[in-house]
Amino acid sequence: MTRSEAFRPAFLVAVLCAALVVLCLLSIALGARSIPLDQVVQALLGRSPSRLVENVVWSVRVPRTALGLTAGAALGLSGALMQALTRNPLADPGLLGVSAGAAFAIVLSVAVLGIGTLFGYIWFAFAGALVASVVVFLLGRLGRSGLTPVKLALAGVAVTSLLTSLTSAVVLTDPEALNRYRFWAAGSLADGTGDVVLQILPFVGAGAVLALVCAPALNSLALGDDVAASLGRRLGLVRLQGVAAVTLLTGAAVTVIGPVVFIGLVVPHLARILAQQARLGPDHRWLLPLSAMLAPCLLLSADIIGRVAVRPSEIQAGILVAFIGGPFFIAMVRRRRLAEV
Fold it and tell me: What stretches pass through the bilayer (predicted)?
């Protein structure tokens, strides 16, 4: 690689890092409550004369921004990983039933066990996501041909449909579960606290490590199962690691911020476009980190807009991500960019 070729990825990473820093500062400075910028800076430096401003900055906005970074990176990584595992450019983490499993566990814990706090049902939601993913993986292995991308996708659709129906049946019979499910399903960073971020951080970290370890094998898998096997890749192990990573990443993020759609679907395509511009090619050793950086940019942008657009109320980030990501993804499909990336 020449010096000019090495400069391209370095410049790309620098630009994305700068964008993340700017968005983090905007997320801390802007909100439903209007606070002068100088007071925000003083609060960050620990010199604010107002205890209220200091509490808003450190207890609300900083944890909310940290949650956006953590959950966004998790969704971006899991989306890129899902598309690589299934070799399906339209795949997203919901394909494995992770979101549906988390949703069903949440409403079940509220309706049956009477759990009413986030710290109570987050673990049930994560367990539900994990169980759903394991069931999908086991169903996908049935048959003579073993685990294949098509069977994995079909198993995910079947399990998701079943869990969605069960969730609807539960929430329609329990008003409290319905209220909590409606807020959770819209997707929001409003519940972001330091404790919440610390709770999901180990799962996101473990999932990120698994995903990055799988990156070289994903490059082989993109050439087809036969080629990957001839290169010495153990396909079952690679897919098992991938499913575990998707479960950890998506389960941890979705249980806290809800099933925010289009992040895991659109961001990997954006990462591929940027990788092409930087002449990196379809290398998952670059695509996965780029997706992990782009996804928080999208999620934080939506959250910032939602907080300032209708002050003093706010629009939940999941709704704005759908408005931003939906038309963009349709435009990508219409221009046949999926075939190009």
Answer: 65-82, 94-115, 121-140, 152-172, 200-222, 243-266, 286-305, 317-334
- Quick one: average pLDDT of 228-254? 84
SS3 content of the chain, % helix, strand, coil (to 5): 80, 0, 20
Quote the number of domains for the chain.
1
Q: Strand, helix or coil at 146?
A: coil
Q: Give the integer Cα–Cα distance in Å for 220 and 211.
A: 15
Residue 225 C-alpha from the chain's centroid: 27
Q: Is the torsion defined by CA of 80, 84, 85, 91 positive or negative? A: positive
Amino acid of residue 73: A
> Structure pTM?
0.87
Summarised one tens digit per residue, pLDDT across range 261-272 is 789 888 998 999
- State how far the Cα of 113 lies from the Cα of 176, in Å rounded to an integer: 12
Written as six digits, the tokens of 13 are 């990473």
Tens digits of residue pLDDT in 79-99 = 999 889 888 777 787 767 887
Residue 56's nearest CA partner among 25, 20, 30 is 30
Name the packing angle between helices 62-86 and 3-29 (round to 10°).
140
Structural domain harbouring 32: 3-340
Report the CATH number that the domain containing residue 41 is assigned in CATH: 1.10.3470.10
Q: Which residues contact 192 (CB under 8 A, 6 or more apart)?
A: 60, 63, 64, 65, 66, 67, 68, 256
Is there a contact between 294 and 19 (Cβ–Cβ < 8 Å)?
Answer: no
Q: What angle do CA 302, 305, 310 make, to 5 degrees?
A: 130
